[in-house]
Task: structure prediction
Amino acid sequence: MGHGHSHDDVRIADPVRRRRARTILSAILLPLALLTIVGTWFLWPTGGGAERVQLDDPYSAAAGVDFVSGTVRQVINETCPSSGDLEDAGGQAQKCDVAYVEPNAGGSPVPVEVPPEILAATGVEPGDQVRYLDLTNAVTGSAATYIFVDFVRTAPILLLSALYAFVVVLVARWRGFRALLGLIGAYFVLSKFMIPALVEGKPALLVGLVGSALIMIAVLYFAHGFTARTTTALLGTIFGLAVTTALAAWATGAVHLTGVGDDAKYTLVNQVPELSLSGIILCGLLIAGLGVLNDVTITQSSAVWELAESNPRRSAKDLFTAAMRIGRDHIASTVYTIAFAYAGAVLPMLILVTLYDRALLDTFTSGELVEEVVRTLVGSIGLVLAIPVTTAIAVAVVKAVGTGGTPTARGNIRPVSGPVAPDELAAVLAAPEAEEPEAGPRRRGRRAAPGAEPDA
Result:
């Protein structure tokens, strides 16, 4: 007599084990969430730092100087407007490209001298939107009345952002839309909590850890829902974040990451004396790895669930082994992703440093590049260790909570799209097993149907 379902199927859909597993997950997650909330409350900025420290806008204009935007109508190579002083002194006038810009507020085009570095990079073409300083009413002693400042990039950036949002929603649909909203929430945490807290001199290690945990808890559940799969990914993410935090705290001191080679950091030190550069670097190491860490943990968690749904009778060991084969491929590709992303971000500096006549080891351990090297190594170690931990947690949870299917009378797993009602589950589990017809003598050479249960 054939048996319609195995004990493994009943265990996967057992509501008692589901409740027990969810209780264990809640017992682990709720204290972590509570610590995050308490830490956020304790570290929340009071507002004194931002009000006490105010920097001048680099694009602000002095008295008598107007900051104007306009459209380039034509570009002509002619005598530079700034050469007027040379001509007055008996020197020879210089030739340069001059863009005639029509102000957006109206008026005739004005000559704006284009800097050589802009010409070497992208140049200026008719139709470009640019910003320039109007020194007509200012007493500066400069022969040039109009000075090029920057391009106006609002339109292409908005177009690119709209395209990005459209592609994400088109492919990921509602989950992609929620992920975009979660990204806005993450920006809120950064701008309203982490950055002001650092300005006020709060402990950078705690600010980075608490802020990163807060972002991950909010983003993961908002984008993927309150499910055991998401909770598993979150636990793996927090583990990877803890590893990254410990390594970053050690590496910041051991490698002597000072950050003094950056002009922006110099400005921060001069304007905010209580701000620690090493603390900023430490916090940056944590934030830099959040996205990739979230990527690998949610992918591993989903991989375990999909493998379990494809073969519910797979043992925990086989399920872990199969999921880790996927995880190893993910590790290989993700390591490249982090390294190339950081290399691309500092490519000009990388080119400049490699042109120096010094050893390769000295180049990568120099103050200009060592921060990116440490960021790559610390982030990679954290995400690599998070993959087996997330996989192990997911296997344990999926064997206890289940894949989301209910056993039928013949022992197959029937997928369900939502929660299983207790009465429905009880009815399915209590249903008598369907009797298999007596199998007659098999013909020689006939193969059993795929998935057929062996006779008792």
The first helix runs from residue 7 to 13. The first strand starts at residue 66 and ends at 79. Residues 1-13, 404-456 have pLDDT under 50 and may be disordered.
